[in-house]
């Protein structure tokens, strides 16, 4: 019989024995974990103290089908009892991996017709960087190694993907600079289209390609809608301009769809909102709705065919590449999304969310810059929105952080982005299964929280 532990014992054990990812060590090792999750059902989860919350950002933007989905659990059970694990190394395969690849390429745009599997988003982007360099090497371009990403892009935490991540703290953490990874200024349509008078021209993607020479640049990586940098949507014409720039300079275009993929934005992929086909798409999170770790890279025919000419082992691949149970869960997840028409549902709920945001903007003077693409949404808080005067932090706390605390007291967990003083972005990205009534509940809690927060912070 497993030993019974009290909640306090578990907290103490956690404090002493676990180093938490993306958490403040001093805080967690002193106070223990803030919540120990214990149960989830639909859009809600409960912690071990018995508090129930609406999961307003689908945990880490991944639990797209919501919690407690028994069909996904059954798919995992069925595969585990059939054959839990079998590797894809040495040219081997398994049926769920093959069937999932069929489903994924069926959804992918253009000639993106093959899949390389990984266990998550960072590994997917890392793999895409390697494939880009390897592709150019096979084409005879030995020096095409540079990867260009954007400020506020988030691409993971391995050494290379962390350097590609355009958030200062992440780039600095690895303590190493990488001569092959550059971070360009954010979304500059004019500069990417060749406007040299733009103040950020030199640090635009175009400027960086010019500076380093196209013979040295392998790929550009962009999230069509940036997630962890604060939900920034590529402006009209931007992705098309970058794609043209890439084509003109023999540079590959990687679309990081780790958050945007598989229905969240109301289309199969974020890039489908624009008229472009990337050379590679990277995915993770929503492919299994977070029920099993899985990720991958979708490759264009040109890249796959070129790599297929290589007649030695490629020294790249993860133990869990093509994990059969992960793939069986992914397959069932995508089947449910299709069967229940959840991509169209996310688009419809996204329109409702934006209407709700518009109403909140009318009612609350601090609410501004709201944006949604399907169920990937955000808004900002400003002291004086007409004049773009931000809220300054108060006693080391941002208004956005306070909003999250106050929202959670009212039963809604969302996420804040306050990387810089004065940046107060709040993201809303609930499971794509959310009903109209549940979404209205989210909006009501946002409304109540805004009333409280506005009164408190405008008086400070
Ligand atoms: N790319 C994007 C757009 C992400 O949002 C994330 C994670 O949040 C990653 C990559 C990294 O994925 P993982 O945490 O699975 O390594």
TrEMBL record:
Pfam family, one: Aminotran_3
PROSITE patterns in the cross-refs: AA_TRANSFER_CLASS_3 (PS00600)
UniProt superkingdom: Bacteria
InterPro entries: Aminotrans_3, Aminotrans_3_PPA_site, PyrdxlP-dep_Trfase, PyrdxlP-dep_Trfase_major, PyrdxlP-dep_Trfase_small
GO terms assigned for molecular function: pyridoxal phosphate binding; transaminase activity
Keywords: Aminotransferase, Pyridoxal phosphate, Transferase
Family affiliation: Belongs to the class-III pyridoxal-phosphate-dependent aminotransferase family.
Entry protein name: Aspartate aminotransferase family protein
